[in-house]
Fold:
Amino acid sequence: MLDSQKPSTAPLALVASRAATPILVPIRSLGVGHRERIAAHLLALDPRDRYLRFGYNAADRNIREYVDSLNFSKDDIFGIYNRKLELIAMAHLAYSVNPQFKSCAEFGVSVRPTARGRGYGARLFDRATMHASNEGVELLFVHALSENTAMLKIARKAGATVERDGSEAEAFLRLPPATLDSRVTEMVAEQIAQTDYQFKTQAKNFWDLLSGLQSVRQSVKDARHKSAA
Structure:
């Protein structure tokens, strides 16, 4: 069964919300230093979410093997952090290792249940397609279970063609060539995301320090009360 839709002409700029009031969602590229947070994100998924993300009932060891195998120099990983520096959504853009299909890539995404309904999956898809286009990718694939309606809806909305084969589905989207605008847009989006991450890191460190000082003060106060008694 084939489903197709005319590709959207909406710009991918800054991965802004498609709601009436645009909301900027900083999406940053992830490196080796984020491996443990990626693991924490995926391990926090419930069995149903793991099944939809990986296509099988992934156990903790399977997720660990997947995270350990991530090659940050070959593929691209994107993520959305909350104020607690928890990775609440992430996407994996895997490039083909076959020289005959070097202009192809595959997209995978996961979002924590507590962060659902905010369009993070679609925004990560937009960010990944923009980057893939800038990297010379011509065809983007999404392999998903047919019951993963959320992912297939995102692909269709972007203009992808979806082919169903029983319990599985394959979506493919032809990407436009890179332009000066797409390259500048991605550069600005990444800079905003990096700045946002640094701000969140500084804020978290400050509140952790403040919490530690309050704990020490409370301990000193309790000790004084015991001594006075």
Observations:
- Residues 1-21 have pLDDT under 50 and may be disordered.
